[in-house]
C-alpha cells in the first residue's frame, strides 16, 4: 500500500512539473498586442499566444492581429481604421510598413495612437528594432509637417500599467551643454507624451535622450547611460532618483553642469521650485547642497 502511494505521489510530481514546464513555454510565446480604444484616447495591451514558430510567421501573425478587431467591443485594431497596409519590408532589424493615402485622414491623436500600438506590438519581436511607416512609398509627416522617420518603443512613453492614456502635445525648455561642456544652452522641444507619465519625468528622460541631431551647437548634458529610478514632486520640490551612471562624466561635461541641466530644465515647470537629485536613493557626498535652485550663471546662448 505504501509502495502504491509512493508511486502515485511520484506521478503527481511528474505531472505537476510537466504542467509548469508547459506554462513556462507558453509564457515565452506570449506577445502583448496593443489595440486602440473606441474613444480613440488610449491604447491597451492584451496578451496573445503566438502560434508561428518562424520569424516570418511571427511577423505575419502580429500584423494580422493588428488588422483584426479584438473580441472586446470597446477596442479596435489599429490597422483596421479606414486605411490599407500595402506592404511590409524587414531588413537588418528595420521594419518598414507602407500604407495607402487614407492613413493621412486619421485625426492627429488617433494617428499617434495607431503608431504607438504598432510600434509597441511589433518591436517585441527580436527581429524588429525600429519601425517606419511610409505613405504610398513616401515619408510620413506628422500634423506639424515634421518627418516622423524611424521609431522604437521608447518614443511612446507609458506607465507600469497596461494602458497608454491620451497623448498631449507639450512644449518644454531643456538645457543642453555647449561645445566646451562648461555652459548650458536652452532649447525648446515640442513632443507628444502620455498623460500617464509625470511631466517632470518626461523632462528628465528627454534630457537623457540628448539634443536633436538637427540643431548644431547643442551637446548631451547628461550621461546617456543614466537610468531613471523615480521622479516625484511634492510641495514644489522635485525628487529625481537616478542610478550611479549619472555621476560618470561624458563629453567633458562635469557633474555640476549635468546637475544644473536637470535643475534648470525642471524649474521651468510651474510645479517645481527646487530639485533634489538622489543616486540610488541617497544624496551623493560630493554634492555641496541637498536642494538645488535655478542657476542662470551657467547658461549661455548660441551667439556666445
Offer a concise description of the structure.
This protein is an alpha+beta fold. The chain is 25% helix and 27% strand. Mean pLDDT is 84; it is low at 2-26 and 159-163.
List the helices and strands and how they pair.
Blueprint lengths: L1 H27 L1 E8 L5 E7 L5 H12 L8 E2 L8 E7 L2 E6 L8 H15 L7 E6 L2 E2 L23 E2 L2 E11 L6 E11 L4 H11 L18 E7 L2 E6 L12 H12 L7 E6 L19 E2 L4
Parallel strand pairs: 5-6, 10-14, 12-13
Antiparallel strand pairs: 1-2, 1-3, 2-8, 4-5, 6-7, 9-10, 11-12
Helix pairs in contact: 2-3, 4-5
Write up this protein.
The chain is an alpha+beta fold and 304 residues long. Helices cover 25% and strands 27% of the residues. It has a 4-stranded antiparallel sheet with strand order 3-1-2-8. A 4-stranded mixed sheet has the order 4-5-6-7, covered by helices on one side. Strands 9-10-14 form a 3-stranded mixed sheet. Helix 2 runs antiparallel to helix 3 and helix 4 runs antiparallel to helix 5. It is elongated and about 55 Å long. The N terminus is likely disordered.
Order of helix and strand elements from N to C terminus = HEEHEEEHEEEEEHEEHEE
Total count of helical runs of at least 4 residues: 5
- Assembly type: single chain
- Low-confidence runs: 2-26, 159-163
Q: For the report, how would you describe the main beta sheet?
A: 4 strands, antiparallel
Identify the strand order in the major beta sheet. Answer: 3-1-2-8
The residue-averaged pLDDT reads 84
Strand content: 25-35%
Helix content: 25-40%
Number of strands: 14
- Indicate the structural class: alpha+beta
CA radius of gyration is 24 Å
End-to-end gap: 92 Å
What's the overall geometry?
elongated
